[in-house]
Amino acid sequence: MRQSCHRLLEHQQTGGDEPPLYSPIDQISVVPDHVARQGGGKLTRYATTEEDEATLRELLLSLQRQVNVMSMNLSAKLDELQRGDRQLETTVALCEIRTQLQELTKSVESCQSEVSEVKRDMVAIKQELDTVQQVKEEIEELREYVDRLEEHTQRRKLRLLEQGLTFFLSYAILAAVLGMLQFGYNTGVINAPSKNIANFMKDVYKKRYGIDLHDGTVNSLFSIAVSIFAIGGMLGGFSGGMIANRFGRKGGLLLNNILGISGASLMGFTKISHCYELLIFGRFIIGVNCGLNTSLVPMYISEIAPLNLRGGLGTVNQLAVTVGLLISQVLGIEQILGTDEGWPILLGLAICPAILQLLLLPACPESPRYLLITRQWEEEARRALRRLRASNQVEEDIEEMRAEERAQQAEASISMRELLCSPTLRAPLLIGVVMQLSQQLSGINAVFYYSTSLFTSSGLTEESAKFATMGIGAVMVGMTLVSLPLMDRTGRRTLHLYGLGGMFIFSIFITISFLIKEMIDWMSYLSVVSTLSFVVFFAVGPGSIPWLITAELFSQGPRPSAMAIAVLVNWMANFVVGIGFPSMKALLENYTFLPFSAFLAIFWIFTYKKVPETKNKTFEEILALFRNTNGRDSFRDSRLYGSMMNCVNALEQQLPPPPPPAPVDEKHDSCKSPPHCASSSNSLHNISFTFLSPSCSHFTKPAY
To answer: Which has the least CB within 10 A, 433, 611, 661, 666?
Structure first.
């Protein structure tokens, strides 16, 4: 205790501010040194109470002072420490605030950049709106122009519909359809003298080889002589488009007569030369001639005919075919030329239509459409129109041809490959092909080629069968004449549907009559009546309409190639029926006409669903029917649609380009403008009027 007191006193004497590091308990138990020294260095346990109390009081006072000093020092230290901690926390907080303020500054700068871009976009959109307003005004003017043009076109069409049949037009059509008469004559001429020709083949073969020719071989040779005509027709029909474009419609017909004369001469000299191969080769040559005729004649007539007479005059093609059939059937009876001596003359008479056309056709003009659109000879086209219309007022025809030319500038001189690949022309090409198939696969050629044997198998005598075959030709001519006024009054599609439907019904009746002919005697007459009715409905529709509508479905550019493809398909089907019908008849016997009934049902459904009506429509209007695809509206089908879109595209190119979008900092959620604030479309087809949304007002708030 004494040592503690000494330390305490020394500390007091030195004036130390801080208390020494000892416990207050130690201070209480300490005895001061001067108390020990007063007792002579000896401490006793029995010191006086007064001294101890005084010493203790002094120590307590000293301790109290030290405690007060220590408390003050501790408080000061605590205050100092508290001030230091507060300063550190403030520094950290200020650093965080400074960082967030920097981010905020960057966000504000980014937003300012976005706002500048939005301002630029708004200026660009305003310019676009001004341009759109100008385009609207232009469109209104174009609409007014379209209305005026429609009125003018309607008046022009009415004037075209008022055109009549002139003498020179009739002369030109008569000279041209001699080619279709050639086709009809050679289609039916082989039917009546079939037995005479078969006997000639047997005789020639026996003279050559000394043995008799088997009946099956004779039938095969005769089938070749019949069907090779169709092979030549395929070749001629396929080359018809090339001939029409190179030599013209009239020029091609004139050159084609060389083949007609050659083929007829070969067939006429068959018996004199004792060579049935000459007959087969002559049938092939005359087939090429007829194939070219089936392509060139409908094309020529459809191009020279007035709008209101195009359907009726197109039916003249079929009338010429039926007249040729009737002439061949009348001349083929035994009383005239259907004998062993007369059949070469019967076949050789095919030279007459060719020579007659060579004499008549040179006085006719070339097709005005070919002259104006293909050759660009406007003055020659006007001269041809003046002769055909017997009038100097031909401006309506010229304007109609010019409209067709403008509508088909992109398809001028189109090749067959381009025709097959064109989406716009694929639909009319399909319709043209199916229409040709509906003519040939209807079973009518089976009637033409083998009508005599059909009637004989149904129970008629040979003489009665030949007269029934003549009745077929007469009915064809009469019903074709009836269909002439109906073509432009009722319409092509309607007549074709009636024709296919009637043929379907009577093909069933023909099958029924074949099945029960042995049970009922008079059923053979039902067969004759059903066959004649079958031919009547063929003459009403499928006989003439496929040739007419194929030429109508196409404008000047693709028409030759389309006609070539359609004629090729027609002759291919003709060949298949001609070569296959005898075998099919032997296989199916009384059910021979059932496959034709199935085809007729399919063709009726296709015509009802797909074939458009072309009555009193210009070539340009017919083309617009097939442009109305993929949901396009009627305005898109307008004849001026292409011109209007060119005008709009020209205006569209004058628009300012849109500014590039500004990059957005993905690290900070600064100011993300919506997509329509970042760019604007200058396409007049896709302009949408939108308002800028105030989405540039959200910032990242700093966490204090």
So the answer is: 666
Check pLDDT > 60 for residue 488: yes
CA dist 81 and 64 (Å) reads 25
Tokens 């004629």 map to which residue? 567
Q: Copy the structure tokens of residue 155.
A: 């008046």
Name the helix (H) or strand (E) containing 50.
Answer: helix 49-161
Residues 6+ apart with CB under 8 A from 376: none
Distance (Å, whole) CA 65 – CA 205:
162
Burial of 9 (0-12, 13-18, 19+ CB in 10 A): middle
Q: What is the mean pLDDT of residues 218-240?
A: 88
Contact 544, 414 (CB under 8 A): no
Q: Could you tell me if residue 42 is left (phi over 0), alpha (psi between -120 and 50 degrees) or otherwise beta?
A: beta
CA pair distance 366, 176, nearest whole angstrom = 11
Give residue 645's pLDDT.
40
Structural tokens at position 334: 């035994």
Q: Which of 29, 27, 28, 20 is nearest to 70 (CA)?
A: 20
CA–CA separation, 27 and 17 (whole Å): 18
CB of 191 closer than 8 Å to CB of 451: yes
590 close to 527: Cβ distance less than 8 angstroms? no
* CB-facing half-sphere around the CA of 525: CA atoms within 13 A: 3
